Amino acid sequence: MSAPIVHFEIGSKDSAALAKFYGDVLGWTFLPAGPAQVVDTGGASPTGMLNALGHPPDNYVLIYAEVNDIEAAIARAVEAGGSKIVGPGPLPDGRRFAWIKDTAGNVLGLLTPKP
Predict the structure, then answer these.
(1) Of 1, 56, 62, 76, which sees the most CB atoms within 10 A?
(2) 3-state class of 52 per DSSP?
(3) How far apart are CA 49 and CA 75, in angstroms?
(4) pTM score
(5) CA-CA distance, 79 to 90, in Å (whole number)?
(6) pLDDT 10s digits, 67-92
(7) Is the distance from CB of 66 to CB of 3 less than 8 angstroms?
(8) Tens-place pLDDT, residues 11-40
(9) Could you give the CA distance from residue 97 to residue 46 in angstroms, rounded to a whole number?
């Protein structure tokens, strides 16, 4: 089965300023969540977040694909010539996430379904 795109992140040093930009440009609304802003795009699109990690990378755009077995997906990425960058790690809602790098150097997030 194909892994659907279910979430996106846009990083910056100042997520509140970035929220103002995307609110003005795209009409998105936001819910502050610590150093991040949870995105409401107003549609049936993937969930999103504007994030301020507090460490590099400061500026990035990342999409997340949903996978049932995150360890197996990481192993397949490594076997195919990619690498694991972060995780897997837990999220407050019970899901788990990881970041992998493809053979061209792009970073992709992996996210498990909600329990």
Answers:
(1) 62
(2) coil
(3) 27
(4) 0.83
(5) 24
(6) 999 999 999 999 999 999 999 999 88
(7) yes
(8) 999 988 999 999 888 888 898 888 888 888
(9) 15
